[in-house]
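Shipment paperwork, digital attachment
Item: protein structure file
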Amino acid sequence: MIKKISLVLLIVALSTSCVSKKIYNDLESKYADLKKENRSMADENANLLKSKSQLELEKETLNKELAKIKAEREKLLEDYAALNKKMDVLQDSYTALEKNSDESLKANMAKNRELLEQLGAKEKALALEQEKLNKNTKRLQELEALIAAKEASMRKLKETLSKALNGFEGKGLTVEQKNGKVYVSMENKLLFKSGSWAVGNEGKTAVVEVGKVLGDNPDIAVLIEGHTDDDPFGGSGPIADNWDLSTKRATAIVAILSENKKVNKQNLTAAGRGEFSPLASNATAEGKAKNRRIEIILTPRLDEIAEMLKEID
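Attachment content:
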């Protein structure tokens, strides 16, 4: 598509006698927009591929663990069969020895009784191990299903947020899913004036939309992080430095989210990261703009998964 627009621009440039300057400028602007959209789609595709690879690695690990448990189960079953066979032999020997009243045979008979008792104890232990193995196998299957459900829930949450914030596309707002979490990133140009922690009208509208989605998902943990570039804070008043400014900005976002009565305030956490977690190099104006941001990080509750892992021996 971009190549086609480039060709059109070339033809227009060579035909200025036939096409007005305004049309040329419009085409050139559309070409720039398409290039930007193409880069954005490429970045999003790379992030999705990275998330997919991570999930595939986690799935592979679970499959290996399940295969290991199955192999142990097969070994226990083989041991159980061998013990049963040995028990049958001992039982036959014991029966024969009881028919003979010879003292040596009596001694052997006592020894055989001891062996039978040991065999019975091993058989009981094996039954307990089998029960434990069956329980762990079931727990692993339940854990896999729960993890899959959590992943599906976060995908749906990301889609819902993307739809709700569609009107802010191209205004410094992005929504992405990675490492099992959903990240809503808002550049400061959408939210704050330089050196201020007061949220502007357009930025507040975006945060309110996020709050509506969170209100419908009360089990999601929400971390709001404030970030700055590495330019020292030059203002005056109650702000000490960039770290202080980033914290106040994060708290300002929490205050807007808290206005929604459906939002579970126990799930909200505000944090200031200052300039110490940059997305890009601060050597350029574009990099600084990307680093000045608020990140709303949504994490599913993992209590159920943690409890299930405790129950797996």
